[in-house]
Please model this.
Amino acid sequence: MATTLPIDAVLEDILDQARWAPSGDNTQPWRFEVRGARHVVVHGFDTRSHCVYDLDGHPSQLSLGALLESLALAASRHGLRMQAQRRTGMPEHLPTFDTVFVDAPGLAPDPLAAFLPQRTVQRRKLSTRSLRVSEKAALAASLPPGFGVLWLEGTRTRFASARLMFNNARLRLIMPEAHKVHCDVIEWNARYSVDRMPDQALGVDAMTAKLMRWIMRSWRRVDFFNTWLAGTLAPRLQMDLLPGWYCAAHFALLAESPPRHVDDYVAAGRAMQRFWLTATELGLQMQPELTPLIFARYVRERRIFSRTEGLQEVAQELAVQTRTLLGKEHTERAVFLGRIGAGPPAQARSLRRPLSELIVAPVAGS
Model:
C-alpha cells in the first residue's frame, strides 16, 4: 500500500531520480520502504506469473539492477556511497534489498547521474552513421569488470539483426499468451504514460496504431487478421524491420559466464544501465531487443511457453537464427540485446509513477 510518509530531503531526491530506471513494459517492479534517513528497503517483484516475456523473472531482475545502479548514481551527487545487500530467505520472485547510503568524503558526483531522467527508449528510425571509435570506446569503458560488448555492425550483419527482430515479432504477435500482455501494457491515444507504454512511442504511424487498437480488442480479431490478412506485416515492418535497418549497429552485452541466478541478472542490470546512460551522454539513442534471448532460452531449456500448436517449432527456428547471428557461446553469455545510433530522443515516452505511489509503509518484522 502506497504511503506519503515524510522522508529526508536528500533521500527523497535520490529515490526521485532513481525511479527513472528502465523496466520492461514500464512495470517499475520495485517499491521503497524507508527505514531511516539513509536506509531504504527495496522490495522487488516480477511478472513471471502472467508475462511470457519475464522468463523466471530475469528481465525484471535486470530492471532491479538498473534501479540499484541508479540509486548509487543519484547518491553520488550528495557525497554518499550506496551499499546494497540482497536479503537471503526471500522467495526468488520477491528479491529484496537493504540499501544503505553512507558518507563518502571526497567522492565525486558520477556524471551519468545527470542523465537518469533523460534516458529514453527510441523505437523509431535512427541514423545509419557508424559509431565513432571514441563512442564505442566510451561505451565499452562504461561496463564494469566481468562484462563486455559484442558489436553487430556493417550492412550484412545489421540486416541479419533486423531480420531476426522482424521474425521474432511474428512469434510475439501470433501467440495468444502474448496478446493479453500487449493489451495490458499499451496506453492508447497517449504520448506519455506513468505506468504503461504510450501508443505514440511504439514506432508505428497513426493509422497503423488505430488499426492495431481495434484488432487487439479481441483475440478472434487478431487471429483472423493474422491468418487471412497478413495482420502482423505492417507493425513488424514499422516496429522491427525498418528500425532494425535504420541504426548504427545492434549489440549484445556479454557476461563472462552464462548468467544463472538472481544476483547475476541484477549485476547485468547495473552494467546495462551504465551503458545506456553513457549512450545518452554521447547523444546516442537505444532500444532494447531482448525477445530473441528470451525465446532462445525457452528452446535451450526445453520450456513450453505456448499451448498453440507449432509455436515451439517457430521458436526453435528463431533460436537457430539467434545462434547464427551471435554465436553459440555468445548467445548463452548474452544478458542484453539492443540497437543504437545517433538521432533525436523520443518525443513520446513512458514516464514513472509518482514517488508517493512507490513508497510503502514499513513491513512488520522487517
